[in-house]
Amino acid sequence: MSFVKVGAIALLGVLLGIQFKSGKQEYSIYIGMGICLLIFFYTAAYMGQVKTQMETLFGHISSGNRYFTILFKVVGITWICEFVAGICRDSGFGAIAAQIELFGKIAILFAGMPVFLALIETIAGFVG
Question: Which residue, of 41, 49, 82, 104, has the greatest Cβ tally within 10 A?
């Protein structure tokens, strides 16, 4: 049922934004940003439920908590960067959106570095 609500909110926001597109374009941008934030916070509520279920799953795995934290950092960085870049792109600031995406990729690289180092240590342990 909640997916229907989110879809209805998005559709209503798009239709409302189209009405303002021809006259006051800045209102159209504000409406789009507001709808995006509303959907973002609605999705964040689901992420809390997913986090709880994933914590139970990773509780059974040794050293799963460390990787679980890294996983959620990477997902959070990706999610926020994509959200902000989408708003920038829709507002006509494509260059800023590209820089945000680049920043997100570099942040993901550094957030995932402990996993890469653990993989290197495991390979080194097998080799000798």
Answer: 104
* Residue that the structure tokens 């590209």 belong to: 98
What is the chain's alpha carbon radius of gyration, rounded to the nearest angstrom? 20
Structure pTM? 0.63
CB 35 within 8 A of CB 13: yes
What are the Cα distances from residue 87, in Å, to 3, 8, 73, 74?
21, 20, 21, 20
Burial of 11 (C-beta count, 10 Å sphere; 0-12/13-18/19+): exposed
HEC profile of the chain: CHHHHHHHHHHHHHHHHHHHHCCCHHHHHHHHHHHHHHHHHHHHHHHHHHHHHHHHHHCCCCCHHHHHHHHHHHHHHHHHHHHHHHHHHHCCCHHHHHHHHHHHHHHHHHHCHHHHHHHHHHHHHHHC
Q: Which amino acid is at 8?
A: A
